[in-house]
Write a structure and sequence with these properties.
The protein is mainly alpha-helical and about 625 residues long. Helix content is about 65%, strand content about 0%. Helix 13 packs antiparallel against helix 14.
Length: about 625
């Protein structure tokens, strides 16, 4: 017996000879007796048929011949039996290491069925010691993967994973991930989501004792993706937060789905916390949504006045711009300027200086010094600084604005620097704390005018004049107006005179306001629509609708159209003063300019006033 055992390897090495087949249908060509091989006729082997000739042995390509079953030399059942026999023979010659290497080779060619068969033969075979082969966890995972690729569902894989205990194995992270992947790939996420969550929680609990079973990035991605597919947003976001706190990296697909779900379900604050969590980790701070999604995030954030999310969207824009500039040839990306103007407005409303500076930097980077920002961008920046109380920065932005558009000859350019409209937020900010703020601003402007180079601005001083008028301080208003020419060496413009008229008219000094008007008319300064509106208000405060109507007539003669609000104020005063003549003139003006004053008839208004007067008497 010892001799036989020792001779077994020798016998295996010798049995490499091929035996003569006994299959009766292997044909042999008959030859004539007595004909020596040397004198036999020499025949040339013909070329294979042309694949494009439509030969039935080929199916569209000569590399994939299709042999009809009726003409097969070897029956198909025999081929199958030969393949299984070959796999069974291989299973008897491999150890764990050799089987792992073979599986690694077969995975590249996707020979899943053969992997499954070989593993099943192998675990029923004996090793060198005469014991049944025992797989390890990694080898068993190859078996699970083969079943997964062959279409096994999650329940089948769970059953196979339970068999690992029979071999003294504990399912590791890769084992569970294969099961989770089967759940994720199923067409019914709702039917698997509970099992997936339970499996993940089991991995977390088991991992406390067996570290190799702890969930990894793929585990969280699969469960989170399954929760998003099942539209369970809250649960998905909970596990996203858990993954970030555990230091795992989110996949780009999960991150984009998280952003999309939060945006469309109005979970903006949660999205801000997730983005901040990604920024704190090196492995997640490079996550970047698509460009169109960044634009949508910014739009939604600005509509909701969510300054933090808006700032995060600006950070995404910067990353895209930098990425475009780094490629060759460079791709120059620009953010819509209207979107950035809205961001500046949100910064002013929410008092967020970080968003203000970020929006302006993105704007400059988008324009790439090809042109100056639009006037709306400058005005939004001035408004934001004024709202934040950063008056020095606001006047610096005003200086840039004047350099860009101060010399414009367009008709609309005059209105850009009006303290009553465009620059009104700055004028209001100048008197926020009364005369203390006004004096501080005036001294700052005075120092800037003495700097090198000097920075002098009539528009800035006009804001100070209007600020003085807002706090009913006519003395400071008049002194500031006089300082435009005496201290700063500048010439007052129409906005300067309008601010002074407003200051006098607000205190009921109608005559002084009229003298200001007559003064600049003598100087050749052309009044604008705001001038006539302020004069009308000054006359109405003194209860003189006829004088107000005369101002409107001058306004119409100067090719300006009275506003609906102006005529309403005059009619209201005419009604109270029972000035029917002036009221008729208002009626003529409404018909001339096609202004509809409302559903209430003016005669009814007069009747109600007369009735109330008699009743009061």
């Amino acid at each position: 017996m010892t001799i036989l055992i020792r001779s077994r390897p020798l016998i295996r090495t010798i049995t490499t000879y091929k035996s003569i087949t006994t299959v009766p249908f292997l044909s042999q060509e008959p030859q004539l007796a007595g004909t020596p091989p040397e004198t036999a006729a020499i025949t040339t082997t013909p070329l294979p048929p042309n694949p494009s000739s439509g030969n039935p042995l080929y199916n569209e390509h000569w590399r994939s011949p299709v042999v009809p079953s009726s003409s097969s030399i070897v029956p198909l059942p025999f081929l199958r039996q030969s393949s299984l026999s070959r796999i069974e023979e291989i299973s008897q010659t491999l150890d764990v290491h050799g089987l792992m290497n073979l599986f690694a080779d077969w995975m590249t060619t996707q020979r899943w069925e053969e992997m499954k068969q070989l593993f099943e033969f192998w675990i029923r075979s004996l090793d060198r010691n005469g014991k049944l082969n025992k797989p390890d966890a990694n080898l068993f995972n190859h078996y699970l993967r083969a079943n997964l690729m062959m279409g096994a569902n999650a329940d089948d894989l769970l059953g196979l994973a339970c068999q690992m205990e029979d071999y003294g194995l504990v399912a590791n992270t890769a084992s569970h991930n294969l099961i989770l992947k089967a759940m994720f790939q199923s067409g019914e996420p709702l039917s698997w989501v509970d099992k997936a969550v339970k499996l993940l929680e089991r991995m977390i609990q088991t991992g406390k004792e067996y570290k190799e079973s702890l969930p990894d990035e793929e585990s969280y991605d699969l469960v989170i993706g399954l929760l998003f597919k099942a539209d369970l947003i809250d649960d998905a976001l909970k596990y996203v937060d858990s993954a970030l706190k555990s230091g795992y990296k989110l996949s780009m697909n999960v991150f984009n789905e998280c952003v999309r779900s939060c945006v469309f379900n109005n979970r903006l604050d949660i999205l801000v916390s997730i983005i901040d969590g990604c920024k704190k980790t090196d492995q997640n701070k490079g996550l970047l949504p698509p460009w169109n999604m960044c634009t949508h995030i910014a739009d939604v954030a600005l509509q909701a006045d969510n300054s933090e999310l808006a700032f995060s969207s600006l950070g995404f824009f910067v990353k895209w711009i930098v990425r475009g500039e780094s490629v060759r040839p460079p791709v120059l990306l620009t953010v819509d300027e209207g979107l950035l103007v809205a961001a500046l407005g949100t910064a002013g409303r929410t008092y967020n200086a970080k968003l203000l500076n970020g929006a302006w930097e993105v704007l400059k980077r988008s324009l790439q010094q090809t042109r100056a920002p639009n006037p709306e961008s400058f005005l939004a920046k001035i408004y934001a600084h004024a709202s934040l109380g950063q008056l020095q920065n606001a006047f610096a932005a005003l200086h840039e604005f004047e350099k860009a558009y101060g010399s414009s000859k367009e008709e609309s350019a005059e209105e850009l620097f009006s303290p009553f409209t465009s620059l009104n937020p700055l004028a209001v900010a100048c008197c926020r704390n009364g005369f203390v703020t006004l004096d501080s601003v005036y001294y700052q402007l005075e120092n800037l005018s003495r700097a090198d180079p000097p920075n002098k601005s009539v528009a800035a001083l006009n804001c100070v004049i209007l600020g003085c008028a807002n706090i009913w301080d006519i003395d400071r208003a008049y002194q500031t107006f006089a300082a435009i020419e005496s201290s700063f060496g500048l010439t007052p413009d129409i906005h300067s005179y309008n601010a002074l008229i407003y200051a006098f008219g607000k205190l009921g000094k109608r005559d002084e306001a009229t003298k200001v008007y007559e003064h600049f008319m003598d100087l050749g300064v052309k009044p604008n629509e705001m001038t006539y509106s302020l004069l009308v208000d000054a006359h109405l405060i003194k209860r003189e609708p006829k004088a107000a109507i005369s101002v409107v007539d001058e306004m119409v003669h100067a090719q300006y159209k009275p506003s609906k609000e102006m005529l309403k104020k005059i009619r209201r005063r005419c009604t109270r003063e029972m000035d029917y003549e002036s009221d008729d003139r208002v009626e003529e003006l409404t018909k001339k300019f096609y202004i509809r004053m409302g559903i209430e008839n003016r005669r009814n208004m007069l009747f109600n006033v007369e009735y109330n007067t008699e009743y009061a008497g």
